[in-house]
Write a structure and sequence with these properties.
Strand content: 25-35%
Radius of gyration: 20 Å
Helix content: 10-25%
Largest sheet: 9 strands, mixed
Distance between the termini: 57 Å
Number of helices: 9
């Protein structure tokens, strides 16, 4: 009786991973390749998930309807409340995917499903941790959250494998196995892995959360396991794919390392800074900022850019030492929106530098 009840519960997959590792790209891959499956996707904010515009059918205050039959729900408040909200909808669900953010420890999220009344309605299937093959290093592992993401990952998805050599991939895999000797490691490019290897795999084992690979550095005694509190930042903004993308190696003698928390909040020295302007950037000035002023402490940046020299909407990503700019058509008011994330970054100087990029007489930057 117990086994039958458990298998009838809604399976849950948690997507974990570091800033810029590709969680939203994987999420889009999952949503685009499901057939006949009603999935609920839980993310921090709708504006952060990068669901392609042609997937969105309707929106309301806290729910997005997608053309493939999936729904997307915000978790701006409590995760448990968001799960209950989607479960209570009249249409039955087949699957739930929870996308966490770059500094989210997956354990409190998992405990939301294990340590509350949700355990009678859901079944935690696996925790997938995405890892950036190009930028992963010991700086990540030296953070408490970064180590937890590896330790608790049932599947470690080594992503962006096309950007590095096979020797680099083997070295990263060895780093991961040094932390977790029984790690199940998959390789991917742009998160493209057969869904049968990721969903409904039944890999989560609840007894492991109480004995995390014998790693005493992971102390969750202060966690709130009732509601799955975790660190939400603006992770994975605007992960759109377009034919006009430009991928550049952003390496000016420095490297970007680290992780971040929510806007202006500090965890282990990592913060995020938001910038907006009501006028366009000068393309020349912004290029100079990227080439000569972007500090090595900035690990991740993303946003939507408006240039004085272009009629297009430009989606900007920076992860580690690589950045890309994809251009699309504007569908709303034109403005610059940018988030920079790093360790011990100087917010005041960065704001001044970005304000200086605003084209003269075309608007004034603000934060």
């Amino acid at each position: 009786m117990t086994t039958a009840l458990a298998t009838s519960n809604i399976p849950v997959t948690i997507l974990s991973g570091f800033l810029g590792s590709g969680k939203t790209t994987l999420l889009n891959h999952i949503l685009s390749n499901q057939q006949g499956v009603k999935t609920a996707v839980l993310v921090n904010e709708f504006g952060e998930i990068g669901i392609d515009n042609d997937l969105i059918v309707t929106t309301d205050e806290d729910m997005v309807e997608l053309s493939n039959g999936c729904i997307c729900c915000s978790i701006n408040d409590e995760l448990m409340e968001a799960v209950e909200r989607v479960i209570e909808r009249p249409e039955p669900l087949d699957y739930i995917v929870v996308e966490t953010t770059g500094l989210a420890d997956p354990l409190p999220v998992a405990m939301t499903f294990l340590g509350s009344e949700l355990r009678d309605q859901t079944r935690l299937d696996s925790i997938i941790t995405l890892i950036d093959a190009e930028n992963f290093d010991n700086v990540v592992l030296d953070t408490e959250v970064g180590r937890a993401q590896v330790i608790y990952g049932d599947i470690l998805l080594l992503n962006k494998c096309d950007l590095v050599s096979d020797e680099r991939l083997q070295a990263v895999e060895q780093q991961l196995r040094d932390v977790k000797n029984d790690a199940r490691i998959l390789r991917s490019v742009k998160g493209e892995v057969p869904l049968a290897l990721l969903l409904s795999v039944g890999l989560f084992e609840s007894d492991r959360v109480s004995t995390p690979a014998n790693d005493p550095s992971l102390d969750h005694s202060d966690c709130d396991h009732d509601h799955g509190h975790c660190s939400h930042d603006h992770e994975e903004v605007h992960s759109h794919k377009h034919d006009h993308g430009h991928d550049h190696s952003h390496d000016h003698g420095h490297h970007h390392h680290g992780h971040t928390h929510g806007d202006h909040q500090d965890i282990e020295g990592f913060t995020s800074m938001s910038f907006q302007s009501d006028g366009p950037f000068s393309l020349r000035k912004f290029q100079n900022f990227l080439d000569n002023q972007m500090p090595q402490e900035v690990y991740r940046a993303k946003g939507v850019l408006w240039f004085n020299e272009s009629e297009r909407r430009h989606v900007f990503h920076l992860a580690g030492k690589r950045f890309s700019i994809d251009d699309t058509d504007w569908t709303d008011d034109r403005k610059n929106q940018l988030v920079l994330i790093g360790r011990n970054i100087d917010h005041t100087t960065l704001r001044q530098q970005l304000n200086a990029c605003v084209a003269k007489d075309d608007g004034k930057g603000f934060t």
